[in-house]
Amino acid sequence: MSEDPFGDLDAAMGSGESASEPESEPEPEGADANDAAESEVEPESEPLDEIDPRERPAFEFDETVHKALYVLEAVADEFDDIITYDVERELTRDHGLKSVTKSELHNAALGVATEHPEEIVERVLEQRGVDDEGSE
Q1: Bigger pLDDT: 121 vs 14
Q2: pTM of the full predicted structure?
Q3: Long-range contacts of range 2-10, CB-CB < 8 Å, 24 or more positions apart?
């Protein structure tokens, strides 16, 4: 596939989906081990289920698996454009979601596909030029 000119945009914006491990934050100068341990143990200000669902992704990135999908380049490019410029924009602008991740968008797209297998069958037949009327 072609190089994505915006491929490093997610990393620059801190999407949390980088392949490398996140860097640990440096400790402030003069902080001793006890101060650092205490700051790590402090509970979150709100329990996870009380946080507005618009503020966080539906699931953590480490819950996902990487699966290879083999598609034509034009279809992959169109999918990326629609996911980024239509779907993600509508979720953020029109519905107020924050921190929308690519894994969340891809999961939703595949979920829609699994709910409509008949459309997948129709598309494969169409790609092959097979008349669907003769098979019924």
Answers
A1: 121
A2: 0.55
A3: 2/73, 2/77, 4/80, 6/84, 10/102
Q: Residue 64: count other Cβ atoms within 10 Å of its Cβ.
A: 15
User: Using alpha carbons only, how large is the chain's radius of gyration in Å?
Assistant: 21
pLDDT digits (tens, 9 = 90+) for 118-136: 999 999 999 999 986 655 5
> What CA–CA distance (Å, rounded) separates 136 from 23?
58
pLDDT at 57: 74
Q: ∠ CA 132-133-136 to the nearest 5 degrees?
A: 95
| Contact of 98 with 52, CB cutoff 8 Å | no
Q: How far is CA 3 from CA 8, 40, 42, 92, 100, in A?
A: 11, 39, 43, 26, 22
**Which spans in the chain are helix H?**
9-13, 33-41, 73-81, 89, 102-115, 117-128
Place of tokens 């699994």: 114
What are phi and psi for residue 99, nearest 5 degrees?
60, 45
Residue 99: count of CB within 10 angstroms of its CB: 14
pLDDT tens, residue by residue, 44-103: 555 556 777 777 777 677 888 888 889 999 999 999 999 999 999 999 999 999 989 898
